[in-house]
């Protein structure tokens, strides 16, 4: 439930969304356009994860999406849980932090870092998934591995940046060995899909395909126009082989 709604005439710099307030951002990507028009983003991803996240859990999210899912994750894990959000791109990091602060999410910890194979610095244009093109410009970002975060617990890794999964997992070997978290990721496409799935299986995971539509007919603002006709994300949900998670057999990869 969104308990922070305000009139848009009262403050046109804020949007009311399903899980809280969001600061107005440039409408130059699908996530921001969806937040502005529908008051939510990729809601079918949350529909799947809502059956997995519990109070007290610890979650790592890579890629800010303006905090669209972070707001829900923070509510789902509760005061006893933690959400760690890594967003390396400067402006997106600042915009995401603004939304976290507006909603008073004290259980969210933000990291202005790229999560990859090693610790250091890199140009965005040299990193997987071509984030320089998607963010509108190149910049030097700080890089870190998941293992470097030294998390006290971890139940889910959520990867929002397509094309980054393989490098992120390469830097997360010890964390995955220790905690065996669920992994939910947006996949890169045909060129890397087979390799991404193989890396997960080599880590001892079972994998299922999840193909959420970008448009949700039951959206928060009840807007009936579909600006994403036929558009889906190609995602994977992965569970340790020793776990109890199951999706329909026809979706297993």
UniProtKB/TrEMBL annotation:
Domain of life, source organism: Bacteria
SUPFAM superfamilies: S-adenosyl-L-methionine-dependent methyltransferases
Pfam families registered for this protein in UniProt: Methyltransf_21
Keyword Transferase (UniProt): yes
Xref: InterPro entries: FkbM_mtfrase (IPR006342), SAM-dependent_MTases_sf (IPR029063)
GO molecular function: methyltransferase activity
Domain Methyltransferase FkbM: 75-207
Presence of keyword NAD: no
GO BP, sorted A to Z: methylation
TM regions (residue ranges): none
Keywords carried by this UniProt record: Methyltransferase, Transferase
Protein name (record): FkbM family methyltransferase
